[in-house]
Amino acid sequence: MRFIIYFVICFFTSVKTFGQPAQPELLIIPKPVELHRGSGHFNLPKQVVIFLPDLPELALTRSFLKDRLSVPTGFHVVLGGQESASIKLLIDPVFNPKLGSEGYHLSVSHSQVIIKANQPAGLFYGVQTLLQLLPKEIESKVSVKHVNWQIPVVEIIDYPKLAWRGLMFDVARHFFTTAEVKQYIVSMSRYKYNVLHLHLTDDEGWRIEIRGFPKLTEVGAWNVRRVGDFGDFIPPKAEEPRDYGGFYTQEDIRELVKFAKDHFIDILPEIDVPGHSLAAIASYPELSCTPEAVRYKVRSGEKIMDWSRGAPPIALLDNTLCPANELVYSFMDTVISQIADLFPFEYIHLGGDEAPINYWQKNEQIKALMQRESIKDIKKVQGYFTKRVEQIVESKGKKMMAWDEVLEGGVSPSTAVMSWRGMKYGIEAAQNGHQVVMSPTTFAYLDYMQADEISEPRVYASLRLSKSYEF
Questions:
Q1: What is the pLDDT of residue 232?
Q2: Does this chain's domain 22-158 share its CATH topology with 166-439?
Q3: pLDDT beneath 70: ranges in the chain
Q4: What superfamily would CATH give domain 22-158?
């Protein structure tokens, strides 16, 4: 009996396979909330007429779609009225609560394509999905012959599960030009990310012009170029030129903010303090507690921390701003004022990670601060600093964000926490009333090795794509 049942199942499976060829799966990233495949295709006409509302927020969507459809196909793509258009982008006159501000409804029939959304962002994201439905040659920068420019008949409803969909771009360790940052923004927008976290300062470089502190970019933006395995760079010699790096002028930043906004992306600026501040200290040694800081240079990749005992690390030189120095808070007020003016996003990220304490432990200024403020634990000194800069941020009409270490010294519930040391700190922060962004190394650190050492440069940790998808 088992044999007969097995035979019948195989028979009907075979009939389905040979009688109705399976349609290829539609691989859209990120996967839409709802996708219903129909039969047949919409054939892109050789004269494509596009209609979309005449809104300033849709200027880039208009030119982007026109360019992307015309260049690889060689077809004539024009803007026209709603009646004659074969591709229609429509703002729904009745707000659809299911779609929210970033969702869309994409409908492809045999005769037309319609994208509906509540807001311009939804139409932009619908266009990104539409392009993924076309043949892969749509990515070409030149005209491609002998392609069937077809879009499968489909109904898609999509909206984001998460309001914050971010990627960090570290422009401090290595400088990237404005053109390269724009390329990053364009790539982000294709996959519907909406927050670009710009890591603007670190031990290896200060990347943003701050008026009143010219040495931050004259000195702090430059180091000695080093190539090799991570962690094994040879310390630079005194005579080697410090000409590797760069920075963004305030005009550059305004240009990037507008470019990102046109792609429905907000930019979160990060000024990493009080640790990771060697570039600032090399520029202005008076920001340090440590007298020998006058000899410090911007890091070129040489070892400056001993991690053998875990976190916090043992500093081989003092890369921290001095919490006991009032000049530091005057400096931070100037920096935060200008950052707040340049970046319209509601949050400013002020780092707070991996600040060593061994130089603070032997510093008389820090000891006096602890006595004056009744601070019993040296680890709470950073908490004092964090609360001071938090007040500065709030005085500029912004909210502060920081890495999860700031929880140890205490911050107000208005400060958002970015949890990078796994998930537990983010969970604890959320339970204590903080807004939280999850960015755990376990899943999200895409700059780790993705394969084995034999096939790519060695880094201290690895992360497989499959592991990221588990997140």
A1: 79
A2: no
A3: 1-22
A4: Chitobiase/beta-hexosaminidase domain 2-like (3.30.379.10)
> What pLDDT does residue 21 have?
59
List the structure tokens of 63. Answer: 């030119």
What's phi and psi for 202, nearest 5 deg?
-170, -170
DSSP states of 378-424: GGGHHHHHHHHHHHHHHHTT-EEEEEGGGGGT---TTSEEEE-S-SH
Beta bridge partners of 167: 196
Among residues 331, 349, 341, 193, the alpha carbon closest in space to that of 271 is found at 349
Pairing of strands 104-108, 150-158: antiparallel
The whole-angstrom separation of Cα 258 and Cα 264 is: 10
Distances (CA, A) of 223 to 203, 231, 282, 378, 454: 10, 16, 11, 32, 29
pLDDT value of residue 4: 38
Amino acid 106: pLDDT: 98
DSSP state letter for 449: B
d(Cα 109, Cα 38) in Å, to the nearest integer?
A: 8
Place of tokens 């006096």: 368
What ranges do the domains of the chain cover?
22-158, 166-439
Output the pTM of the full model: 0.93
Opening angle at CA 268, ends 418 and 457, nearest 5: 70
Closest C-alpha to 236, from 168, 299, 312, 286: 299
User: Coil, helix or strand for 197?
Assistant: strand
What count of other Cβ atoms lies within 10 Å of the Cβ of residue 305? 17
Cβ 258 vs Cβ 218: under 8 Å: no
DSSP collapsed to 3 states, 343-367: CCCCEEEEECCCCCCHHHHCCHHHH
The torsion angles phi and psi of 111, rounded to 5 degrees, stand at -115, -15
CATH of domain 166-439: 3.20.20.80
